[in-house]
Amino acid sequence: MPSVYFTLSAAVLAGFASVAQAQTNITNNACADGSSYDSCNRDVANKWGTCVTDCRGDGDCMVDCGCTAHQQYINCMAETCWNQVYSCEYQLFVQQYFAVCPSAAEPIPFWPAPDNAPNRCSCDLGKVLQNTLTARKEQMTCMKNVTDQTVNEASSGNLANLGNGLNIANQATECACCGASASYSAAWEVCPDTVPTLAGANLWGVFFPGDLPNLYNSIPNWAWDTCDSTLDNLKCQDIGFNDSSDKFYKPGDFPKNGTSTLHNVAGTVTAPPSGTVLTWSQSSTSWTVTATGYDAKAVVSQSEYRATATGTSTDFPGRRM
Ligand SMILES: *[C@@H]1O[C@H](CO)[C@@H](O)[C@H](O)[C@H]1NC(C)=O
Ligand SMILES: *[C@@H]1O[C@H](CO)[C@@H](O)[C@H](O)[C@H]1NC(C)=O
Ligand SMILES: *[C@@H]1O[C@H](CO)[C@@H](O)[C@H](O)[C@H]1NC(C)=O
Ligand SMILES: *[C@@H]1O[C@H](CO)[C@@H](O)[C@H](O)[C@H]1NC(C)=O
């Protein structure tokens, strides 16, 4: 876990201390229970402010406050604005949650939006981010494999290979190029019509910053732009990369950029997608949230509910957990 980066992001988070602005960018009139939505968010912002003050400048403590606040904002959505959880705005909020909270872990309620969900974002932002998170994990495993081999060779007295710096650098470069490629590629692969930066083309820099200490020790001059020849001669699957999109474009060989901006597709979520009660957890915290503002008739029958919530889709789960 690149905790150093996230500790640094405590500063970002404190600067965030326009804390009230951190909630989802959804206006109350779009929500099933707009007035409760406002008071719920206000309450979270107040608690967050108090939490940060009580940290007295301790970075880790402030990061924890941000994690909790984001979880509570998600609860506000589940409680009062469940009809907007597949929107671009909520999916972007979850992206923000992962960016500021190092302990954030799947599963997250309503994320990614199911295929064909009503009122979903035109680009499956959740899927793009999932690819980046997977790529990060795979790259770190890949790098560790390189390091472990070096240690093995040293301890087995295999001096012929020991200090073969060039080989180590080559393997580390392969890991780095595949990781970056997997992450970048997802934006084009998952959302070919969307402007890449809006689809998440910049996520790699956020979740895997190049200045992360020690990460690129063996390859100090590594740059994504130089990965063409590495990727020419390599199947990333062979060194442990297996993204769900499984695309590994080379820097000089990307598909055309999409031109669409983000928007929510048609459709209405007419009943709480999680059922009336949502239970979920992060780290050691468990949350139970009861939805408000729904029409009881719409939730009575799960099958009726599925029909209203999905249109024609069969793969829309009644419960996203
Ligand atoms: C909400 O909108 C503001 C202004 O456009 C933007 O800076 C911020 O990142 C957005 N927040 C989220 C969670 O999308
Ligand atoms: C680690 O590296 C070795 C040598 O390149 C390779 O055979 C092995 O499959 C790698 N393991 C993983 C988990 O990628
Ligand atoms: C790759 O990932 C998919 C699911 O994401 C999984 O079904 C498959 O077994 C994986 N393949 C390998 C070689 O790990
Ligand atoms: C496509 O988008 C990427 C990411 O924003 C950008 O770096 C690149 O220059 C764009 N390519 C073209 C041909 O506009």
How would you describe this protein?
With 321 residues, the chain is mainly alpha-helical. It folds into 2 domains: 3-121 and 266-310, no CATH class; 125-239, no CATH class. The chain contains 11 helices and 2 strands. The chain has a two-stranded antiparallel ribbon. A hairpin with a 2-residue loop joins strand 1 (277-282) and strand 2. Helix 2 (34-54) runs antiparallel to helix 3 (59-80). It is globular, with a radius of gyration of 22 Å. The two termini are 24 Å apart. Mean pLDDT is 83; it is low at 1-8 and 300-321. Residues 145, 239-240 line the site of one 2-acetamido-2-deoxy-beta-D-glucopyranose (NAG). One 2-acetamido-2-deoxy-beta-D-glucopyranose is lined by residues 242, 244.
Tell me the structural class. mainly alpha
Helix content: 40-55%
Number of strands: 2
Q: Numbering strands along the chain, what is their spatial order in the largest sheet?
A: 1-2
Bound molecules: 2-acetamido-2-deoxy-beta-D-glucopyranose
Number of distinct helices: 11
In what range is the share of β-strand residues?
under 5%
Return the domain count. 2
- Sheet of most strands: 2 strands, antiparallel
Instruction: Give the radius of gyration.
Output: 22 Å
Low-confidence stretches: 1-8, 300-321
Mean pLDDT, to the nearest integer, reads 83
State the shape: globular
How far from one another are the termini? 24 Å
Provide the succession of SSEs.
HHHHHHHHHEEHH
